[in-house]
Amino acid sequence: MVAIFPFKAIRPAKELAAKVAALPYDVINSEEAREMAVDNPYSYFHIDRAEIDLPQALSPYDPAVYQKAATNLADFLKNGWLKKDDAPYFYLYQLTMNGRSQTGLALCASIDDYVAGKIKKHEFTRPEKEVDRIHHIKACDANTSPIFLAYRQEDQIQTLVKDWQKNHTAVYDFDSYHAVNHKVWVIDDENVVTTLTTLFEAIPALYIADGHHRTESAVKVGLEKRAQGTNSPESDHFLAIVFPENELAIWEYNRVVNIPITDTFLDQLNVSFTIKKTTKTKPAAPGEIHMYLPGQWYSLTAKETIKDENPVKRLDVSLLQDNVFEPIFGIKDVRVDKRIDFIGGIRGSEELVKLVDSGTWQVAFSLYPTAMSDLLDVADAGKIMPPKSTWFEPKLLSGLFLHDLETK
Q1: What's the pLDDT at 79?
Q2: Residues 239-255: pLDDT tens digits?
């Protein structure tokens, strides 16, 4: 029921893969990207965050940034740092972190499948973030970062993937950020490509795990080119890496709030939660949220009166939003309210303590990770999770695969 397509990947020369590959553009800021790429001319940040090669005072959304990205991409290709494969293939991308591995299939998905709801989302997007990637895709005439998709496990696909890994040598094998090992295999056997394509036709749906803005942007560029008559077969597709859901790990996505804490704050919380002091920094189960005020952690256990069977309302991020952020803090839209920020679980609870003890933020909330089954249930129900409900680790590195739209 879903269509997948092999593609001619633009990818690094083998000896440069570790130097090219970079964290996704949306998990770091411009300053961090500058620092990471300062002594590395091969870093993909020069393409994905091209503002690092322009004056610091320039907005990262200035038209010059997108033109610089296109120029840098052209230079990478001219120098042979990136090369485009001669034939369309599928690719396997395995990430191993703390002894746990997940293997995805790098491919192209259909913009029509997304429009038809066969590629399901669980988050809303912000127009300004879509516009950023739309400009980036148009300037480079390429999908410059993959979308992270999931599917419900299918045994035949898993068997094919494992057999290929067992019987073929990886073209890339290197360690990078947070001690994650990255391996890539090229599936260049036409029979295997055909078999995988056929097997995915029986998959009812794909799910966006991470990359909602990239998906919306890629689809809108493809549809615009189609409407203008400037499309190609490739611009009707977009770059994705699909993983079986049972291999994926969602980490907690924590919150910090910068609002003065009143003397009645704990009493207000007590309406919806049972509150206890604790020395533990992370909750042990769903329905429990840990909160840090200067010098002290608390556990907040949801009372039966606020529990709900609705697949969205029962999420811990919803319990926090509906019973703390909105009624107590007056934070109605966490996507735009500057009094709240989000801290990925990879940074650890110590980051929450540091931010609050520094006085920059007044209170922090440590959440139990959203379950993958919850994400699938919400998407299948056609509902939307609160923003920043999931943080996937390890992160797919950018720069290992680009998809040429072939419209220039």
Answers
A1: 98
A2: 999 999 999 989 999 99
The model carries a pTM of: 0.90
Task: Give residue 264's pLDDT.
Answer: 96
What is the C-alpha to C-alpha distance for residues 248 and 371, in angstroms, rounded to an integer? 10
CA atoms of 82 and 375, how far apart (whole Å): 35
Tokens of 104: 């995805």
Domains in the chain, please, with CATH? Answer: 4-249+393-404 (no CATH), 251-369 (3.30.1760)
Cα–Cα distance, 227 to 229 (Å, whole number): 6
Mean local confidence (pLDDT), 362-372: 95
Q: How far apart are CA 209 and CA 334, in angstroms?
A: 20
Measured in whole angstroms, the distance separating CA 261 from the mean position of its chain's CA atoms is: 33
d(CA 235, CA 136): 14
How large is the average pLDDT for residues 143-171?
Answer: 96
The single residue listed with the structure tokens 């019973």 is 323
Helices vs strands, H then E, count in the chain: 13, 21
Please name every residue paired with 9 in a beta bridge, in sequence order, or none if there are none. Answer: 403
Which residue's entry shows tokens 């970079």? Answer: 22
Q: What is the rounded CA–CA span in Å between residue 64 and residue 60?
A: 9
AA identity, residue 106: A
Residues 218-248: b if buried by 16+ CB within 10 A, e if exposed: bbbbbbebeeeeebbebbbbbbbbbbbbebb
Q: Are strands 250-251 and 391-392 parallel, antiparallel or unpaired?
A: antiparallel
pLDDT at 159 over 90: yes
DSSP assignments along 145-181, one per residue: S-EEEEE---HHHHHHHHHHHHHS--SEEEEEGGGEE
- Cα gap 361→357, rounded to integer Å: 8
Give the amino acid at 131: V
